[in-house]
Amino acid sequence: MSEPILTLVVDGLQVSGLASETILKVARENDIAIPTLCWLEGLSSLGACRLCMVEIEGSPKLHPACVTPIQEGMVVATRSERLHRYRKAIVELLFSERNHICAVCVANGHCELQDLAVQLGVDHIRFPGRSPQLAVDASHARFVLDHNRCVLCMRCVRVCGEIEGAHTWDVKNRGIRSLIVADFETPWGLSETCTGCGKCVQVCPTGALFEKGRPVAETHKKRPFLPYLMANRAREHR
User: Fold this and answer.
1) How confident is the model at residue 1 (pLDDT cuts 50, 70, 90)?
2) Fewest CB atoms less than 10 Å from the CB: which of 33, 54, 194, 198?
3) What CATH number does residue 51 fall under?
């Protein structure tokens, strides 16, 4: 039985998509830009960063576009003053929560958080910085984990489990105390599950995960490889 095709309106444009598709997917298929940070094509959707929140007519609350399925007749707004203020505040809070000093970061000029700040017009932070003293794990022979730059998007956790199948990464604690950890808080260099593939480094949106000895000018990451790997895996399991 074929999946039903639904019609909805996004930013005044009539669009359509499969019933199983999300607002974000349909919007991107129609060149409607919605900011994201935790979402990445090829990985499962998590709805963690809340930057993709949209307005749906008839609902007083905001909805995460990456995990909200489309509905017949749905009317969605992806741009409004309310959404702009909300997204701007999220980016400011991310900057204030940890130590995102762009000028001394290995990802300066190649950082998705930095790009979002520019797009949203964040030129100062209204919230007091927490300035936590977080560890830097450089025990791996090739890579470094800097907790100070982490935004807890959990892309590394998902790519390690869903694509590489190693399940090295996980999250400990809750809220602002949350940290990415390898093998139940083992130093990365001592991990018995890490394959050294570097996929986690490639999908990291900031400078939290980076390759040793790689200058800023060479930090372009190869994120489009994920849909390719997923397609190959699907063919192998047919």
Assistant:
1) low
2) 33
3) 3.10.20.740
* Gap between the Cα atoms of 134 and 181, Å rounded: 13
**What tokens appear for 112 in the block?**
């998705």
Q: Are 130 and 92 in contact (CB under 8 A)?
A: no
Q: What is the pLDDT of residues 106-147, one digit of tens each?
A: 899 999 999 999 999 999 999 999 999 999 999 999 999 999
Instruction: Report yes or no: 35 and 52 within 8 Å, Cβ to Cβ.
Output: yes
Whether 104 is covered by a domain: the verdict is no
How sure is the predictor about 233, in pLDDT bands with cuts at 50, 70 and 90? low
Residue numbers of the domain that contains 229: 109-236
Give just the sign of the alpha carbon dihedral 156, 159, 162, 167.
negative
What's the CA gap between 103 and 147, in Å, rounded?
A: 17
Yes or no: say if 160 and 199 are a contact pair by the CB < 8 Å rule. Answer: yes
Tell me what pLDDT residue 226 has. 73
For residue 98, give the nearest of 67, 66, 133 by alpha carbon. 133
Strand 143-146 to 136-137 pairing: antiparallel
Number of Cβ within 10 Å of residue 123's Cβ equals 7
